[in-house]
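Risk register update: the risk that structure generation would not scale has been downgraded. Supporting records follow, first protein first.
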Amino acid sequence: MSDQLFSDFAPMDKNAWAKQAQKELKEKFGSATSWDVGSGLRFNSYATYEDLDAEKVAAMQQCQKKVPGWLNVPELEFSHPLQTNLALKNALENGADAALINLGHNALSQCEFPKLLHGIRLTDTPIYFQTSENPEDLFSHISKNASYYLKGGIAFDPVADWMRYGKSFETRIESVAAVLTRTKNMREFRPVMVETHVYHNNGADPVQELAFTTAATVTYMDHLTDAGISPLGAFNRMLFSVSIGTQYLTEIAKLRAFRFLLRNISRAYALPDELSNPFIQAQTSSFYSSTAAPFTNMIRASSEAMSGTIGGCNALTVSGYVANAASPNDLSGRVARNLSSVLYHESAFGTVADPAAGSYLLEKMSIDLAEQSWSLFLDIEEKGGLVECFERGFIKEELGRSLTQKIQTSQNKGIMVGVNKFTEPGEDTDLLIKNPPQTESPFLSHDKSLSECFKSRPASL
């Protein structure tokens, strides 16, 4: 039987495949068989065993997640302590494993944590709190009536906040170090977030996104170890939060490449591989969401969530299809929460730790993306590190160039339903302003969607 099988399906080399693809795709051959990722990196849509370096593949696979599955972590907007408590309990009773509560700009005293967390055991259920308040103050509030061991953490990135608004990050990192000291036995409580969102939502391509976030990780490692925190304690207690975009295969490779980059960092600090366990939260992108045709966001979120889970995230946060609206509704949140459950239970994505392993194409994409990102990271380090590069304008210039390319691609040939095509009547999707006024602000603009870029983003940040 095996001889017959192989005679029916003889091996095909790349040249034979290209000829067949060109015959079938005709004029679409060029655009369908390769695509630009950015930063000089281009992916082909077909790879063979001969394209791979066995040692590099083994190294990529070795640093991937070893335990199947992920946490379903919906995001909840804080409104009132009792109302948010009811929403939290409802989510946990209907598929959520944890929760991310966005406290917004509310003062910690207004949150009334005993009411907010009534009936929730932080020993059993990880709850992440998103706020720009002092981390040590927040921990004091949430631990006051809790047990000795807490799960969850603080979903706040002081360095990213500094890039957006110019608020000093040094004192906040000192506060993070204080919380790390107070919680040294709470291995599942993560008091600081390292996010890609600030770069992703300002137009970063995947190479930039990974390189800048890797540089941010080193920034935190240096500050926290200088404050007396052990390198292993600092590394394993970070919450790495990654925006997942619409380029399905690229985003899978991005997450796998990120784990490879983090392995390089942990080894640079002489941490044992078997003890270094970065915790990665994948979050569906708000940059590619449509404000004019919100139901298309469900389709985009499905693709993004699949990329996140196949790429090996530890936690998944799916944004609702009207998450960008002024008042997200209950159905939007329910669909988002159920999407993670369907992928886990019905699609069986939660049964394999590294579903992408062994795919020639995804292995090559992961390796190429990691190598290109590492090269840019080293360039940042040679220039003095992330903080120095941001203060000199390097980060902003890089993001501005990438954002302009994204908008021009969307104008010329890239169709996104509800963003630049098939929008609602009266929706303004004017093309990019040719000669925008220049801003003297050194800080990054607030996070926006791509559709908003057509109306308000300048050609350079």
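Supporting record for the second protein:
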Amino acid sequence: MAKPNFSNLVKSLQPDLLIHDIFQGWAAKVASQHDIPSVTFMSSGATMMSYFCHLLIHPGVKFPFPAIELDKFELAMAVGYMEDYKNAERDADEEDEAFWGNNEIILVSSSREIKGKYMDYLSELTNKEIIPIGVLVDQDYPCNQVYDDDSEMIMEWLMAKDEFLTVFVSFGSEYFLNKEEIEEMAIGLELSNVTFIWVVRFPKGEEMGIEEAFPKGFIERVGERGKIVKKWAPQAEILNHSSIGGFVSHCGCWNSLKESIDYGVPIIAMPMHRDQPMNAKLVVELGVVVEVKRDDDGKFRREEISKVIRDVVIGENVRRKVGEKRESVRLRKQRRS
């Protein structure tokens, strides 16, 4: 239904250039029909795209960057991500032809300091110019979210905590931990003995109370050391707070990872599905992340969660590397401005 309306809009506006998301391949076709050049914007990043293009163009050939090689569980997640795209309702042949023929440039939301070699390889595979548009987090204006009473309470709670000794735990808005994962995460945090703020979300229609969601006695045992927040918290403000010493993340949203790097916060990676394992391996390669390893059954366990959290928060090595990467990205931004 969107295509005819979009086509009419493009015809009416006659833009000089159309920028569209990688998953809207049909937009390139519409642009081509109106003799308008188009450029793809790739929010998922050059690493995952280079991996997928490699699989399509060189099937059976080993990916040339072993640092992000996927194990059997992670590969299943990535294949599922590819299948979602392939099975989407679209005119694949015509749209792919329009994409490859009409796009000479691909914009990526990153920087060469983070993904340079993967950009170069993607350019080689696609015969297109890959242009990084930089980190989309404005350090000069970190506190631009709307505050409510809950936000004020969260920030007041953080103000009373020691520098770098609190972890922020959030798995995004599209992945929901199951009961077993919640229990392992909760006991892992309890065993780590660090202060934490945890944003918990449930699927629509499956909402439950805090006491019901967590292991028996967990809330009482952690007491003031832990703060549980339902649904939403001001992430940018939290990550930019001096008490935060680590970010437990599924590595699903590249903007969240960039925020963490830009604010100098080490990441504890717990990738759950889709492109998250590859995102995690990329930032591990950069030295700004420690990944929580799954067991032989592909599950996260409390002991490993606890160990990695303590290693990141108590140690200084990862924080130092994040600071170095943060400065290199800032210097590149200053040279461009």
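The chain has two domains: 2-132, 149-333. On this basis the risk owner (M.S.) recommends closing the item.
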